[in-house]
Amino acid sequence: MSPNRTIIVAALVAALAASAGPGHAQTSGGVFKIYHRDSPPSASILEEATNSTVVPFMPVFNNLVVFDPQVPQNSDRSIVPDLATSWRWNSEQTELTFKLREGVTWHDGVPFTARDVACTFDLLAGKGREKLRRNPRREWYRNIDFVDARDTHEVTLYLTRPQPSLLSMLASGFSPIYPCHVSPSQMRSRPIGTGPFKLASFREFQSISLVRNPDYWKKGRPYLDGIEFTVSNSPSTAILSFATGRFDMTFPWEVTAEELKIIRQRAPAAMCETTAMNLNINLLINRTTPPFDNADLRRALMLAIDREAFVAALGREVAEIGGTMQPPRDGFWGLPAADLAAAPGYGGDVAQNRAEARALMEGLGYGPGKRLDLKVITRGIGTYTEAAPTLLSQLREIQIDAQLEIVETSRWFARLSRKDYAVALNATGNGIDDPYQTFYENFACGSSRNYTGYCNRELEGMVDAQSAEIDPHKRQALVHDIDARLLADGARPPIYWKGGTTCLQPQVRGYVSMVNSVYNGFRFEDVWLERASPRKGQGATRSGFAVRAEAAHQAVAAP
Question: Which of 256, 275, 291, 409 has the most other CB atoms within 10 Å of its CB?
Answer without folding.
Answer: 275
